[in-house]
Amino acid sequence: MIHITRTLSIPDSEIQEQFIRASGPGGQNVNKVSSAVQLRFDVARSPSLPEAVRARLTVLAGRRINQEGILTIEAQRFRTQGRNRDDARVRLVELIRRATEVPELRRATKPTRASQRRRLESKQKHGDTKKQRRSVGPSDG
């Protein structure tokens, strides 16, 4: 059982892990041992996820989620299978935890009349400063 929050947890049966050969450094070990982990979690059909979390997770996952709604996380940072497995699970938990956070609604506001006036005065002052920097042309005097 993977605990995401106090109220949300995912049973191990909903997660599939496949061990594959990692690319990158590692010498002969890379050619012999399948130390990289490919973790799959079916977001679309998971009974553990509330609908709102499922929708936010689909957006957050981006390219990591396919058309069928399966989230794939690959972990090959470490040389051992166990550490890569833990890394993949931690990344899954973090992604789902971010999806559980409800974003604050943005309320449209208007700037105050005083702030509009200050902004226009600032623009006028800046324009006047730039006018002072101009060179005097032959027709100006």
User: Strand percentage, roughly?
Assistant: 15-25%
Using the 3D structure, state the CATH architecture: 2-Layer Sandwich
Secondary-structure element series: EEEHEHEHH
Number of separate helices: 4
Domains (count): 1
Helix share, percent = 40-55%
Sheet of most strands:
3 strands, antiparallel
CA radius of gyration is 28 Å
The CATH C-level class name: Alpha Beta
Task: Please report the total strand number as a whole number.
Answer: 5
Written description of the protein model:
- It holds the Pfam family RF-1.
- Residues 21-37 form the Prokaryotic-type class I peptide chain release factors domain.
- By secondary structure, the protein is of the alpha+beta class.
- The protein has one domain (2-100): Double Stranded RNA Binding Domain.
- The chain has helices spanning 28-32, 51-61, 81-100, 113-133, and strands at residues 2-3, 9-10, 15-20, 36-42, 70-75.
- The strands form two sheets. Strands 3-4-5 form a three-stranded antiparallel β-sheet, with helices on one face.
- A hairpin with a 5-residue loop joins strand 1 (2-3) and strand 2 (9-10).
- Helix 2 (51-61) packs across helix 3 (81-100).
- It is elongated, with a radius of gyration of 28 Å.
